[in-house]
Amino acid sequence: xxxxxxxxxxxxxxxxxxxxxxxxxxxxxxxxxxxxxxxxxxxxxxxxxxxxxxxxxxxxxxxxxxxxxxxxxxxxxxxxxxxxxxxxxxxxxxxxxxxxxxxxxxxxxxxxxxxxxxxxxxxxxxxxxxxxxxxxxxxxxxxxxxxxxxxxxxxxxxxxxxxxxxxxxxxxxxxxxxxxxxxxxxxxxxxxxxxxxxxxxxxxxxxxxxxxxxxxxxxxxxxxxxxxxxxxxxxxxxxxxxxxxxxxxxxxxxxxxxxxxxxxxxxxxxxxxxxxxxxxxxxxxxxxxxxxxxxxxxxxxxxxxxxxxxxxxxxxxxxxxxxxxxxxxxxxxxxxxxxxxxxxxxxxxxxxxxxxxxxxxxxxxxxxxxxxxxxxxxxxxxxxxxxxxxxxxxxxxxxxxxxxxxxxxxxxxxxxxxxxxxxxxxxxxxxxxxxxxxxxxxxxxxxxxxxxxxxxxxxxxxxxxxxxxxxxxxxxxxxxxxxxxxxxxxxxxxxxxxxxxxxxxxxxxxxxxxxxxxxxxxxxxxxxxxxxxxxx
Length: 536
Ligand code: TNX
Fold this sequence. Notes:
The chain folds into 2 domains: about 130 residues, Chitobiase/beta-hexosaminidase domain 2-like (Chitobiase, domain 2, 2-Layer Sandwich), CATH 3.30.379.10; about 300 residues, Glycosidases (TIM Barrel), CATH 3.20.20.80. The chain is about 30% helix and about 15% strand. The strands form 3 sheets. It has an 8-stranded parallel β-barrel, surrounded by 7 helices. Strands 1-7-5-6-4-2-3 form a 7-stranded mixed beta sheet. The chain has a two-stranded antiparallel ribbon with strand order 10-11. Strand 13, helix 8 and strand 14 form a beta-alpha-beta unit. Helix 1 runs parallel beside helix 2 and helix 7 runs parallel beside helix 8. The radius of gyration is 23 Å and the shape is globular. Bound molecules: ligand TNX.
């Protein structure tokens, strides 16, 4: 059995944080401070050239101009206007133009440096106007996130602030290192409703994350309606870790989440974890069990005790129908089929099961994604293996890569947002180690693994398992500041990254999170800027 067994160490939540964790370090930002520097953006841009002495001041009558004929670009303009209106108090009408604007804010789909590719952007700030140029609406969206960070932190307030709203002059040309820049949310161990997921989408999109993987099923809960198997949601979704009420997404709610994510240029990757991690399904339908007896619902935190019945034909009817319904709801290219910790399935059964179900994903028009243990099964075209190990080589992963899989990096001892920061921080687990901010930041996705070539790495994903997390404030505390650190690994060139510069840039994000009401961990490793009382 090569699948790694590991122990879940649940540490009881304590509602205190160490004194060091709350210290505000750094001086208050004076009202006449210089505008935010172009180099202070997170993730750090590929190139930033300041124009000395040049400042743009957003006038009250500014307009946001977008190209005629691109509703998606205009939608990015509306997104920007919605961000800026509450704090500036300005009207900021969004207009369309086929020309080259000379004032205000322009979002254009022409004229960008060709290096920006499909997700990058070029940002020019002169005394007269701010121009974001990209080849796609996604590029414009990422440029808008940079523009947002160049404005004073008070822009994040949802009430009118005094301004002035100044930006430093210069040019940024920026594009991602990796095409897959992900976060994952486990909505199974504890269920999080649509509003919480939308808020998390808002938060991660600021850091140019483009994928949210939803862990929709596990032993403790099934979280999406499947019409052909209705008890999955109504029975399997009826509880969660600790015995609370649980919950599930209706198809309309899931579709709403997909659309909300798409408006932030984020792709949803849904996961149905199989053949282990399936107690909620087994408890919902007796016929899915080899002994035709449904086990009780489960509200603990053990892993590795459940398995779908590999020898039964109905198992494959079930899986095929579930994946077909999920594929129909999901515009993104991937269906994640789990495959981790199948400790109650024999190796032979695991391969039999996975080899039989992987084609269901392709038949539904999607590409297989799975945890790296999936490397034990046959390859399927385009398959992605998500690495969650803690070592620098892994036989299952190497097998997957040698058959042609691409890799998404989620090493548990670096990228797991559910690991505790220190022994003193209140939430999370520690089986993969303690992950302070510097540990989350200081590794290179291309070289961490000794036997996987850099060319096989598709990107990075930061998973958030929710055994100990029950509410939005918990999610925020675990994600901030580590999620922005991991986002920089996924976006910025390795040569542009270093911890000392990063911790200062990260510290400058603190007042933005405060203005946004984000509950973040005041890591003592980071020189946090003090939030200004008003204006910047
Ligand atoms: C391992 S990572 C798991 C999850 C747990 C997580 C807790 C992986 C593929 N499986 O079932 O929630 O650890 O950190």
